[in-house]
Design goal:
It is a single chain. The protein has one domain: N-utilizing Substance Protein B Homolog, Chain A. It has eight helices and no strands. The longest helix is centred in the first third of the chain and has 19 residues.
Length: about 170
Amino acid sequence: MKSHRASSEKGPTNAMSGGRASAGRGGGRSRAREFALQGLYQWLLARTPPPAIRAHLAESSGFDRCDTAFFDGLWQGVTGEFDALVASLVPYLDRVPEQLSPIEKSVLVIGAWELLRTPEIPYRVAINEAVELAKAYGGTDGHKYVNGVLDKLAVATRAAEVGAARAAG
């Protein structure tokens, strides 16, 4: 699904994007995912405790426009279950998790959490949101890798939903 938000709307600006503003993604949950990505990046590189990162993110420009309830569930999930989420991805990776960039790893963990822990979010939405994050913040073709890995995870964990969607169109 393509975003229909105005391209003039800006999300978080941060070091992981080289100081550039986000790619015009402005919905509350999309913003929450961007802030979670920013926080995971900081957590992986600096090992700042998650509550301190959460407090810092809450003071960031644009945080008031994110879906904070969704962010809090996502943030607690991805930081609290990080190793288990990475382990759920391992069968679908073409390299060991330690060789993933911090952005790829973070985007994949966000996508895995959504696929595994939020069945109310359609699998296509979870994958598309992760792909959009990878396009905005990742390497040149990182979004293709994210798409492939998460699609395989979705087939394995949401087989009925994926099968029905593929049969329908």
